[in-house]
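Training component of the fellowship. As part of building independent skills, the fellow (R.M.) carried out the full modelling exercise for a liganded target. The chosen ligand was shikimate-3-phosphate. The inputs are recorded below so that the supervisory panel can assess the work.
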Amino acid sequence: MPPSLPAPIEISPRGALTGRVRVPGDKSISHRALMFAALAVGTSRIEGLLEGHDVLATAAALRAMGATIDRDDDGTGSGTWRVDGVGVGGLLQPEIALDMGNSGTSTRLLMGLIASHPITATFVGDASLSARPMARAIEPLARMGAAITASPGGRLPLMVRGLCPAIPINYTLPVASAQVKSAVLIAGLNTRGITRVVEPVATRDHSERMLTGFGAALTVEQTNHGRIISITGEAELAPQAITVPGDPSSAAFWLVAGSIVPGSDIRIANVGLNPTRTGLIAALRLMGADITEIDPRTVGGEPVADLRVRHAPLTAIEVPPDLAPSMIDEYPVLFVAAAFAAGHTLARGAHELRVKESDRIAAMLTALTACGVPCEEFPDGLAITGTAGEAIPGGATIATLLDHRVAMSMAVAGLHAARPVTIDDASPVATSYPGFFASLDRLTGDET
Ligand code: S3P
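Fellow's submitted model of the complex:
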C-alpha cells in the first residue's frame, strides 16, 4: 500500500447525527473469505467485502502466491469479488516480500497459511505492525515444523519457511487470540491428521463458522477447560458465494456518537451480531444506552440486524472484564462513551490493548487527558470520570499513532466538545473504514 501523507482533520460539534448509515463489511470476515476462497478449488464470489487497506493487503499477498482475485464492478459502486482458488496445498512461492501494511490479522493468519506449504515468505509491515508481537503465532507454528526467523523481540520483518507435510499439534492458547487460533487452524488445513486448538476463553469464531461453510471437517466441543476446535487436515474446500455482514467494530463509532450527541437518532443497517463480537453493545446498554435491534436475520452464517441508537444519558459502570474478548477492538470508543457518562467508569481486564495497532491504553489516556477528561491508568485498562452528558473541554491535537480506531474514537469525542479536537493524521481510518468521514458528513447534514 503506498504510504499516504498525514492528513490532519479538525472535528467540532455539528449537531445531532440523524438518518441511516451502512457500515463496511466486517474486517475479520473479509480476510477469512479471501483466504479460504484462495484455498478452495474453483471460483468463489464475495459480496460486501471490506475494501480497506488491511483486506487489500491480504488480497495482494494471496495474488502473489497464485490466487486470482478480481473485483467486478456492478456499476453501483458495490462490487462483487471473484476469487479463483488454488486448492489447499496449492500456494506458490511468492517472488516478492508480502507487505502487510498495518494489518496484524493478515500477518498472523497468512503465517499460518504458509507454515504448512512448501514455500518461504518474507513479511514486512508499517512502523505500527513492526512493533507488534509475533511470537504468539511463531511459537505454535514452529511446533508444527515451520522455520521462522523474526527480527529481535519476535517482530516483523520476519521470514516463514513452511514445512510440508507439517506436524499436527494440540495447542492450548496462552493468550485469548482469535488470530493465533486461526493461524493454527489454517496451518492445520494442509496438515495430515487432526490439529487441535483449545481456547480457555472464547474468542471470535469466524474461522470456525466459515471453514465449516467451505466444507472443512471441523468440530467444536465445549468442555470445562474451554472450547476445543479440531480440524482434519488435507481438506478440500469447495468454492462459496459469501455475503460479508457489516462490521460491528465500525458500527461501534456510530453507537457511541449517537448515544453522546444530544438529539441523535441513527439507524445502522446490516450489522453483524455474532455473540463473540457484541460486548460493546452489552456494555453500552449497562450504561443506559438506547440501542434496539431491528429485523434480526442470518447473513452468510452470521447473525445480523439493523441497529437503532438514540441519544440517552449514560451512567458510569464497572465494565465486566468477561466482556473483554467480545469487545477487544471497541475499548477506545468505549473510553469515549465513559468520558460522557455520569460518574467514574472502570474498564479493566484488557491487557491485550497494549499490543494492538498502538498501545491503546496509553494512546487513549494521552488523548482524553489532553481533551480535559480525567483518567487514571492501570496496566490493563483505564478509569475515566465523565461529564454526565456535558461537552468535554476538547481543544487538543491527538496523536493517532497509525491507529485507525484511536483516530475514529477521538473524532467521535470531538462531536461533543467545547473546543475543536484535531486528529493529527486521519489517513489510518482507511485500513478499516475508508468512508468514515463521508458517513459522518451525511449523518450531520454536512454533505457538500
Ligand atoms: C482479529 C482478532 C483480534 C482483533 C483484530 C482482528 C481477527 O485480535 O483485535 O482486530 O480477525 O481474528 P487478537 O486475536 O489478537 O485478539
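The panel noted the following from the submitted structure. The pocket of shikimate-3-phosphate is lined by residues 28, 105, 177-179, 182, 203-204, 328-329, 352 (CB under 6 Å). The chain has two domains: 9-24+245-443, 27-243.
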